[in-house]
Amino acid sequence: xxxxxxxxxxxxxxxxxxxxxxxxxxxxxxxxxxxxxxxxxxxxxxxxxxxxxxxxxxxxxxxxxxxxxxxxxxxxxxxxxxxxxxxxxxxxxxxxxxxxxxxxxxxxxxxxxxxxxxxxxxxxxxxxxx
Amino acid sequence: xxxxxxxxxxxxxxxxxxxxxxxxxxxxxxxxxxxxxxxxxxxxxxxxxxxxxxxxxxxxxxxxxxxxxxxxxxxxxxxxxxxxxxxxxxxxxxxxxxxxxxxxxxxxxxxxxxxxxxxxxxxxxxxxxxxxxxxxxxxxxxxxxxxxxxxxxxxxxxxxxxxxxxxxxxxxxxxxxxxxxxxxxxxxxxxxxxxxxxxxxxxxxxxxxxxxxxxxxxxxxxxxxxxxxxxxxxxxxxxxxxxxxxxxxxxxxxxxxxxxxxxxxxxxxx
Lengths: 130, 270
Hints:
heterodimer, A: Rossmann fold, 5 strands, B: Chemotaxis Receptor Methyltransferase Cher, domain 1, CheR_C (chain B), protein-glutamate O-methyltransferase (chain B), transferase (chain B), SAM-dependent_MTases_sf (chain B), EC 2.1.1.80 (chain B)
């Protein structure tokens, strides 16, 4: 059997982490969680996930700092990093893409949005769309 | 709602749009018509059915039909047809005389996501000589398509974020398509059951996820009418759950491409 795809959900809100986990697990992802960028970086060093779902505004180390650190340490392609944040300004999105994010979700999000983005990233089959 | 009321509303919608409402769709009538009942001060569905029997209730009949026939949409819906389109358009362009404008019809365009997805494909391919025609039964959705303004939720359905920042601009919490994309498309109210001859010939027609609401004779009639507007080597895209089998002789599947159809008399070229 193929090894399950892995996703690290990084968000300081337990509610958001839980909501994302529920959707990701439905697509057979193996999900781990981190509460800030620093925890996420340590988690990636221990085991690099396929995908990181990344909040922007968090204590200790924010999402953009994590993104830059991860790209410097693990390279431009891995892990796939998708922002998931209330930051919805055009310039913020451009900043995140410039720093090496592959995708971007503006909160609030739902199953249709997250699943659709997973399909676009080729991480989930097209038939899985809700 | 009594059975007569349902039947008379269903008959009205069928006559105006060709869309068949089976009795299991009663919940849809309830949820979609509730705002109209409230707005018009009509007490219930039975009273609405009676109001609609009056020939002077044209505006109300129109509103009811639109409410029951509009569907949610997303950018690059179903992915595969757009992958095929990317390969098809350069071939069609190569087969046309220099200066020919490729014409593409989004025949149930809803709020415009399909038309603007096609526009983005054309831009990505660097094809400038092209025009997109979007049509829909509903005046309300055609107006929205024409505006080209989408909510944050809508631009996150099917649209890769790189395309969002490339082709859209933020405007008080919403997202507006660039003037460049907007200028490639025009939109018009149009009933698929009508006569389309005046529209001229199209190189590509999208008519997805609307025929499923029609009964088989109507499906066949609409498909024949679309085929009549299609260039000999053109392609018609239908929805994933739709087929031409047993409904029309004029269209045949493009080998290996689900949802893509060409003209039967031109089979050898596909």
